Amino acid sequence: MADKVLIYSRFPKTMMVRFAERFELLDTGGKPAREVFSADELSGIRALLTAGGTPLDAEAMDLFPKLGAIVCYGTGYDGIDLKAAAARNIEVGHSPGANAASVADIAMTLMLATTRRILAADQYVRSGDWAASKPSPMMRPQAGMPGRRIGVYGMGEIGRKIAARCAAFESEIGYFSRTKYDLPYQYFPTLEALADWCSVLMIAVRAGADTQHVVNADILKRLGADGYVVNISRGSVIDEKALVAALTDKTIAGAGLDVFDNEPHAPDALTALANVVLAPHIGGHTLESHVAMQDCVLTNLGAFFEGKSLPHGVK
Fold first, then answer.
1. What CA–CA distance (Å, rounded) separates 32 from 275?
2. Residues 263, 233: contact at Cβ < 8 Å?
3. Which of 20, 157, 193, 296 could serve as 100's disulfide partner, Cβ 3.0–4.6 Å?
4. Contact at 8 Å (CB) between 229 and 223?
5. How many CB atoms lie within 10 A of CB 123?
6. Is the CB of residue 200 less than 8 Å from the CB of residue 150?
7. Bridge partners, 201 (sequence order)
8. What is the SS3 assignment for 187?
9. 14-32: per-residue pLDDT in tens?
C-alpha cells in the first residue's frame, strides 16, 4: 500500500504526476484541509507537500497529529512556522538551489528589460511611431552594463549565480549578506551602504521576519534617481507602498518585479506605471527547474518514509 502524502497547497496537476506514481496523494486543491478531508483521514497523515510561501502555522500542524515531515516544493520555506515544527518534532525539507539558475536568469531578464526600457521600445515599434520617426523621450540612450554597479542583496545559490552573470556583462559587483564570503566581489557591511554604492539593487535574500519590508523608502532613496531595484525573492522584502511612491515621484528610475506582497494580485498602482516590468512569479518556472525540484521532493519523501532524516532539510 502506497504511503499517503497530503498536498497542502494548490499545484497544477501536471506538477504532481511524478509524485502520484510513488505515493497516494490527498489533494486539497489549495482549500483548507478540513473542508476537503475528514478529521479521521487527516489524523493519519504523516507527510505533506506545500509551497514554501503558503502559511502553515502551529494550529494548522495540529490538524495532523502524526505529521512528521513538511516538504516544500521549491527553495523557499518562509510560510512555515519552523519553531512550531521543531516543537512537534516535524522535519521541514525544501529544494535548495534546484531553481537557482532559472531564477538568476529571470533576474537578469528583468534588469535588462527595465534598464534598457524594452517594453517601451516594443510599443514604440508596434505603434508605428518608429516608422513615422516620431520622437520619444523613452528612447533616449540609457546606461549600459559595462561598469554599472550591481548590488546583490543575499549571496546564497541564487545571489551567486546573479553575480556571476552580471560579471560576465562587465559590471562591478558588490553584495551584502549576513555572512562575508571569500568571493571576488566587494562586500558591504550593511544594506544601506550597498544601496548607496550601487545603481541596480538585486534582491535575492531569503524572506523572513528579519527581512519584512527591509527595502523601504530610505533604501530606495539611497539608490537615487538613476537607480533600479529588481526583486526575485519574495514580495514581502520590499515595502510595496514605498516602492510605488518612489517610482511615481522618480525617486528611482524603475523596477523589475517577479514577486509581490499579495500574490497573485499586483496592486493597480504598480501595474499602471510605465517604468516597471512585471512577471507572474515565474523565476523558477522552467522545465529543468521543475525536474530538479521534484527530484528533491521525491528524495525527501522517500527518505522520510524509510525512517531516515531528510537529505534536503532546512538548515
1. 38
2. no
3. 157
4. yes
5. 15
6. yes
7. 151, 229
8. strand
9. 999 999 999 999 999 999 9
Q: Are 75 and 53 in contact (CB under 8 A)?
A: no
**Residue 112, Cα to own-chain centre: how many angstroms?**
18
Burial of 173 (0-12, 13-18, 19+ CB in 10 A): buried
**pLDDT at residue 235, as a whole number:** 95
* Candidates 165, 234, 290, 312; catalytic one: 234
- Tell me, yes or no, if 206 is annotated catalytic: no
The three grid cell numbers given for residue 69, joined into one nine-digit string: 515531515
From the list 41, 170, 192, 263, the catalytic residue is 263
d(Cα 94, Cα 89) in Å, to the nearest integer?
Answer: 17
Amino acid in the structure at residue 133: S
- Cα 69 off chain centre by: 23
Residue-wise pLDDT for 117-151, tens only, equals 999 999 999 999 999 999 988 889 999 999 999 99
The amino acid at 198? C
Identify which of 71, 117, 87 has the alpha carbon closest to the alpha carbon of residue 310. Answer: 71
Please tell me what DSSP assigns to residue 2. Answer: P
Q: Which of 46, 149, 281, 285 is catalytic?
A: 281
CA distance 81 to 111: 33
Structural contact between residues 130 and 124, judged by C-beta atoms closer than 8 angstroms: yes
Q: Rg of the Cα trace of the chain?
A: 22
Confidence tier at 1 by pLDDT (50, 70, 90): low
Q: Are the C-beta atoms of residues 259 and 233 closer than 8 Å to each other?
A: yes
Identify which of 255, 263, 271, 256 has the alpha carbon closest to the alpha carbon of residue 76: 263
Pairing status of strand 47-51 against strand 69-73: parallel
> Grid coordinates standing for 189?
557591511
Give the residue among 187, 197, 242 at the shortest CA–CA distance from 223: 197
Residue 272's contacts (CB-CB under 8 Å, 6 or more residues apart) are: none
- Per the annotation, the verdict on 140 as an active-site residue is no
Is pTM beyond 0.85? Reply is: yes
Dist. CA 78–CA 106, nearest whole Å: 21
Burial of 136 (0-12, 13-18, 19+ CB in 10 A): middle
